[in-house]
Amino acid sequence: MVSLKMVKPRRIDVGERAVDGWMLKSFIWEDSETGQLLGYNHHFQRSTSSDFMEFIRLDLHKKGDPSEDSPHVHIRLEARETPVVDDSLKIFRGLLRLVPDIVEVVR
Amino acid sequence: MTEIDVIKRRYGIPEEASVHIIDYSSMPTRDLMERISELKRRVGGFGDETLDEAMEVNELGSLEEELDRRTLVGEAVLSLDDDLASIMTSSRLRLLSTLTRSDWAHSVRELAVKLKRPEKSVSRDVEVLARHGLIITRDVSDSRGRRREIRVGANKLILIPDTKSVSETPEAASTTHH
After folding, report:
1. Which of A7, A17, A88 sits opposite B65 (nearest CB)?
2. First CA to last CA distance, chain A
3. Which neighbouring-strand residues pair with B136?
4. Residue A17 and residue B14: Cβ atoms within 8 Å?
5. How many of the other CB atoms lie within 10 Å of CB of B54?
6. Do B25 and A8 touch (CB under 8 A)?
7. pTM
8. A59 vs B48: CB contact, 8 Å cut-off?
9. Cβ atoms within 10 A of the Cβ of A69, count?
10. Cα–Cα distance between B111 and B149 in angstroms, integer?
11. What fold does the segment set B82-155 form as a domain?
């Protein structure tokens, strides 16, 4: 097992790609020697037919707060004309299954 | 199979997707420490609402891991873009070799006496060498008063050309984040 102090981190940027009607951009942090996953940001975005942009982001990171340091989702809806008209939501692992429903609701 | 192919297979990234790797181990130590300081100032005051903020949280954690690793193995990275001659003067090399022979020097003053040099110029050299990870300082306060202790930070020096990343398609790294 690799000691936490001996991690040799690197960032992997994955260029934009289309996934089920969304554009996905990913950033992954890992130990370059073992491949151990350290964190990620998977950023989905798409525009709707009603002049809105939708953003969903799946995050894993270490902020030193156990409630933050598990995979979680951010959802954001923005109008093209007026940025940030609606609120953003932050959802933790246990609620991930609700994401499709929530996206429907905010639409 | 290339390194990029291994990564694509590990994370299920499609063949056609571009992948760009930023290898923190080849980041000059001075840049690493400056970036950590900058991110610490900023991360303290925000959450992770935007992609930029969330990325900076991850970047800070990874850079701190890299600095911990270098400290533990005694490694410093200098870029050939730096003016090495102006960093590694003969006085500083002598200072480094003095430290090599001991553990912690108890103060800049003690070091200056040992080197038979003015305290002020030794202090300046300590600052420059510490900025590049070549020495480590710690502030101590005890019955003898407050002072700055000094020891060698690196016994392995890595010189790198200006290649901070390995990339399949460098243009793939987008700068537009939401």
Report:
1. A7
2. 46
3. B151
4. yes
5. 26
6. yes
7. 0.80
8. yes
9. 15
10. 10
11. Arc Repressor Mutant, subunit A (1.10.10)
